[in-house]
Amino acid sequence: MAKPTSVVDSSPSVEATEAPAVHKGGFTGPLRWADERIGVAKIGKAGLRKIFPDHWSFLLGEIALYSFIILLITGVFLTIWFKPSMAEIEYDGSYQLLKGMPVSEAFASTLHISFDVRGGLLVRQIHHWAALLFVAAAFVHMLRVFFTGAFRKPREVNWLIGVGLMSMSLIAGFAGYSLPDDLLSGTGLRFVDGLIRSIPIIGTWAEFFVFGGEYPGDLVIPRLYMVHILLVPGLLLGLVAAHLVLVVYHKHSQYPGPGRTENNVVGYPLFPVYAAKAGGFFFVVFGFLVLMGGLFQINPVWTYGPYDPAKVTAGSQPDWYMGWVEGAIRIVPNIESHWGPTTWSWAIFLPGVGLMGLLFGALAVWPFIEAWITGDKREHHILDRPRNAPTRTALGVAGMTCYAMFWLSGGNDILATRFHLSLNAITIFMRIAVFVAPIIAFIITRRICLSLQRADRERTLHGSEDGVIVRSPAGGYGEGHVPVPVDEQFTLTQHVQHTPLEAGPTTDGSGVARKAEVGGFRARVSRWFLGHDIAKPTTAELDAAAHHGDHSELEGDDDEGPKALH
Question: Can you count the helices (H) and strands (E) in the chain?
């Protein structure tokens, strides 16, 4: 058999010329050992030199990530002492007002952490504040992605992962909120029990499955504990890892600016610049949460007492991210249907289960809907300025307004008592406002965006005012204009303007009917979505504006004063 030509046999002469192994102290030995086996040097060289753009809005995602890390750290601490059991015991702890009262082991262990474990109350409050900050940062981060168009090709999958992260964070937050088994969390759990039972056909079966029998049962706290510390965190870790991997794979999106194109990234390398900044920012977030946990009381379960199904906390409110669901249920009129032996509670199912499904469903399909409307199949790595996508921006603000109206409705009783208003009047007003307010917000937002587009066009063509008021020989007053810098002009005109799709012919050249590539309905939606944009200056208009500015400057050099008055 012939030998392969690539084989090189070792010989004494070759071995003699090889450099002897050098063993150094410190981390050199372990690093060399790892590099020889898994190639950490090659991986590290590529990863540590990864370029990331620098903009303050990118910190929103980092806040969510760091809050999640803090949640894991503090959660491990709390897990050591928390007892996820609904077994009833007689409280014999440090809080004297509840001594001798029958409570669950979960509630008693929460009081033990708060009053008897050194630093327990601080860590518990840090954990709760971090949960609120995590959901809030993820929510605002998704809004940033939506308004700047960062969900477009090739990042649709990452957007779907983000939607999954948001939904999982709500489940994790609610499960953790319910674990202390106090009267406030029990009221929220009773609310969810009503949502489950409102599901048509299978509602009662689902309730018995979740609670291990009729509400409240004696298994829901252990099950929520498993969901809170194992199931949902595992899913969140997997989704976060996938999210970060796709960010690296697709390269980071960036805002328009000088030197930034769809094929490059302008910024700083991961190491040492970005690593140092990110590490410092983590400790800023951690310190901020420690201050909040130490100075601002949250969820004092001892003032609510243990949960009793026969009682309800007056003026009880859920965490902010679930308040909009409660508000929707409060203002929807009572609507029921009785079909055979079943009762369909539309007033609970539609605003509760249905509304949450509508929100996350709409978020999930939006990237594909926008691509269908615009016909845009290109890759996008340059972000949109929200003003340059006025209809999308207006839709986002309308959705936020609708969310705010539902959220305010969740506190209609608090609004009535605080401002001495009629509860019924507030409810009726909110039933109208959830439909009218988003429409008003949509119209105002789109007009503002179009006005900003006109201002950008004017600034690009005619420059900015120089701040000097000059009187002309004819007696009039005016202000000179200074051309905008080339870098700013590039930023203002870098975006791509899409033209509305036009309906295609329904017959071919021979008069035979065929399916049009763009239907009439799609063309009408495209005109509504894209047809209002203000045309950005063309190259010819920019050249003419530059020539006119040069000519005006020359005219302004005579003794009669500046002529470049626009």
Answer: 22, 8
Reduced to 3 states (helix: H, G, I; strand: E, B; else coil), residue 469 is strand
Instruction: Quote the CA–CA distance of 145 and 384 in Å, as a whole number.
Output: 10
User: Concatenated DSSP letters for 208-275?
Assistant: HHHHTSSTTTTTHHHHHHHIIIIIHHHHHHHHHHHHHHHHHHH---B---TT--TT---SEEIIIIIH
364's tokens: 């999930």
Distances in whole angstroms, Cα of residue 89 to Cα of each of 84, 101, 306: 13, 8, 11
- Could you give the CA distance from residue 92 to residue 549 in angstroms, rounded to a whole number? 84
* DSSP category for residue 476: -
* Helical packing angle, 120-148 and 105-115, nearest 10°: 100
Distance separating alpha carbons of residues 78 and 76, to the nearest angstrom: 6
CA contacts within 13 A on the Cβ side of 381: 15
Can you tell me the distance from the alpha carbon of 182 to that of 113, in angstroms, rounded to the nearest whole number? 14
Cα 143 from chain centroid (whole Å): 5
Segment 347-375, tens digit of pLDDT: 899 998 899 999 999 999 999 999 999 99
Q: What is the Cα–Cα distance from 196 to 209, expressed in whole angstroms?
A: 10
First to last CA, the chain: 89
Distance CA 90, CA 104 (A): 8
Q: How far is CA 109 from the centre of its chain?
A: 34
pLDDT tens-digit series, residues 412-448: 999 999 999 999 999 999 999 999 999 999 999 999 9
Vertex 65, ends 59 and 66: CA angle to 5°?
85
Q: Give CA separation, 564 vs 169, 473, 480, in Å.
A: 58, 13, 6
What stretch of H or E contains 90? Answer: strand 88-90
Residues 555 and 561: their CA atoms lie apart, in Å, by 9
Distance CA 4, CA 21 (A): 30
Nearest-angstrom CA–CA distance, 330 and 95 = 36
At residue 382, φ and ψ (nearest 5 deg) are: -95, 130
Strands 477-482 and 342-345, sheet pairing: unpaired
Instruction: Count other C-beta atoms under 10 Å from residue 154's C-beta.
Output: 14
- Backbone φ and ψ of 408, nearest 5°: -65, -35
* Bridging pattern class, strands 268-269 and 51-52: antiparallel
Q: What token pair was written down for 316?
A: 């009880």
- Read off the pLDDT of residues 21-35 as tens digits, 9 standing for 90 and up: 445 555 567 777 777
Helix axes 59-81, 120-148, angle to 10 degrees: 150
What's residue 544's pLDDT?
80
Q: Is 53 helix (H, G, I), strand (E, B) or coil?
A: coil
Place of tokens 């949460």: 289
Q: What is the CA radius of gyration of the chain?
A: 31
Tokens encoding 275: 């690593």
Is the overall model pTM greater than 0.90, yes or no?
no
521 Cβ neighbours under 8 A, 6+ residues apart: none
